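Section 5.1 Outputs to date
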Amino acid sequence: MLQETKFHLPSATDPLQVTERGLEILNNPCLNKGTSFNDEERETLGLKGLLPPFRADLEEQVQRVMENYRRHTDPLDKYTFLIALADRNSTLFYRVLMENLLEMTPIMYTPTVGYACQQFGHIYRKARGMYIHLHHKGRIAEVLDNWPSDEVDIIVISDGSRILGLGDLGANGMGIPIGKLVLYVAGAGLHPDRTLPILLDVGTDNEELLNDPLYLGITHRRVHGDEFYEIVDEFVQAATARWPNVLIQWEDFTNDKAFPLLNRYRDEVLCFNDDIQGTGAVALSGLLASMRVIDEHLSDQRIVFCGAGSAAVGIADMICAGIADEHSMSTEEARKLVWMVDSRGLVTTTRESGLEKHKIPYARDEAPAAELLEVVKRVKPTILIGASGQAHTFTEDVVKTMHEHCEQPIIFALSNPTTKAECTAVEAYHWTSGAAIFASGSPFPAVRLNGKVLVPGQGNNMFIFPGVGLGAVVCGATKVTDEMFFTAAKTLAHMVTKEELRAGTIYPDLSKIRQISLAIAAAVCRLAWDEGLAQYPEPDDIRQYVRDCMYHPDYRPYIAAEE
């Protein structure tokens, strides 16, 4: 049933009534404008004498921030500097980030966020988001009531069990929900005051953390089975009771939890798993753009995966859906174009010890192969996708053997952070004499080879999840479907220009992320309205409606609320 209301953000010119006074305002990052408070605001809000007399505009503040930011040379120091800024002045933080997105995304997210998570307990300064742990069981609703906002559009939640390619980081994994929501705000215009990062602390099996006196999580072995799902069920019920339209994004759960969680809730609440669906969509988009480069179809390809976890299966599912849609074939037929290699070799139906459930659809009815190189020799793939979390698995022998049978090999080394990439851009280009079409999960610099500059693509989930999330929120979607991610992938692929394709890159310029997210969100909204999955009434101009719903970091005028 359509709701009479629609998603709405106040205009940046609408005055905000403020009940706080003086230092209460300056210590609140959602309200603090620092030296930008005008004379009237300083007078009525009790700020006189608490600020230097000079009044700076937002751009002057940005200039001061950048001058200090660029004094730092260590990426972790830059990360802590930016987090400290966010803790002081949220609006200024997002303006700085948006105006320097290409420079700062590798700091606020991959690869630096991985190191920040490893050091989280040692660099901790101020609470951000919420921690739900084992001892909250039975009263999670009461705990969530401590969050001050009655308007939350999106929650990103992780249990810290599989942080990027770094493994179990326990409560230190909070850096990932924080970082993902930063990208939602900067990349798609979700309002920062309506986002909530949550770390579900169900223990850790990381011995180093359990013995670290500065570790901030509970020093308890991880719980599994019914005990784990009981606390997650309670969280979902409590969160959706308090915020009925909230979007929940599952993030960095281990494979044995990621698929069951997604399947458990996807038809019950508004949620998705970015590692499965977002990664799949961004990879599919890169492959669709690659097909434009080589003027072929996905159905003509032979695809080998190194890795068979949640990311790999999510990518394969999305690719097979794309092939099935493009050529009117069944998903089962499309899966015949895919070979998966895990730590025990080629995934086959003949394994004596059986297979994890998520691998079964891609198990081959053929002879085993113990090594990736053996599979490459047998299959002669045209596409090689790395989602293994293991560095250097795309060896020179593997890449050169692939190139012997493929004029323009498509090589996606998607594992994060950079140190976990299956190979580097330099390696892929040099081993193929510049013929490879290369993409990675974390950024690599351009490579000059044989008088030509080759620009590697970055298969960054940031291209996909902010737009999908924005679209789902602003139309009041009742669920997030795989079709929404498929639509997002096609939308993104169409946004790669011919000039970018000629440079060898298969993703658009990340500096255009707001336009990209707008286009994806509008496409998701259109699909939701067409399929009857949206609660809000459909506007006459969907694109303009989405644009009007996007937050932009500007200072609003303040007026003192009457006591």
